[in-house]
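Researcher: Please translate sequence to structure tokens.
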Amino acid sequence: MTASVKPILLFVPVIYLMSICPRNCRADGFDPATTEVSTLFTDLGPNGPYPRGLRLVTFYGGFAEQPTGEREQLSFCTAGLNYYFADNWAFGIEAKGLWADQNDHDSDAGGADILLRTHLVNYGNFSFFGDFSAGVLEADHTIPPSGTDFNFTIETGVGTMYRLNEHLEVISGLRYMHLSNARQEGPNRNPSLNAIEGYLGLVWRM
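Model: Translation complete:
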């Protein structure tokens, strides 16, 4: 199975959940057909839509492309938990599966990230945020081919959340991604990979 097909298959249960949540995930008295969009966030309390103590479960996937046009193309799927330690500020931990389409050999990898996110603008059902994450990846083949199996990752970018109902939101964004082994095996085996990634997924409020 090719790298580009695997993450698409992972979205099948997400699409199913999107179809059933508007019917089954409503709070008492909440009906998107009759509730004004502008009131959904304002009903959550005086501290805004992302107050201290809020917990979110996230699931998203996407693709990363190198602007230099090099052969390595990445696709990924991520599941995580975010905890808001202050209003509009969240700390998160994420598990990631990544697939690399490369000239010499394709590679599968798994890893984990820590995440810091801040919501910069909340307006209506939209929220605009910035985030930063750092993590590790262990692959079954070297990424890039002249590199190593074990790598570090750094990602930073901006994104949006859009609230669908009382418990469910859509998340999307763009990030810059850097992957390298931090010269653990010398400068000759550290061919860093830099890419622009886009992602789309779902967020559940706990």
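Researcher: Any highlights?
Model: The helical segments are 6-10, 12-24.
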